[in-house]
Design goal:
The chain is mainly α. The protein is built from 3 helices and no strands.
Amino acid sequence: MSKRIQVTVPDRLAEELEKWADYDGRPVSNLCAYLLERAVSEAKREGEDWSTQQDGETKEHSKGQ
């Protein structure tokens, strides 16, 4: 099941995403979902681990800062 989210981006970025999506022949929402999946995978590969965070806890807070 997919979950719908709403994101506000600067006009310039929206225009770039629209051009990219058009070039790829897909909807902007599909392109954004793909890019978000890649970003999450990359963060995990680089060692980010938010799976143990408590609700409302930030990265800095969990490091004791």
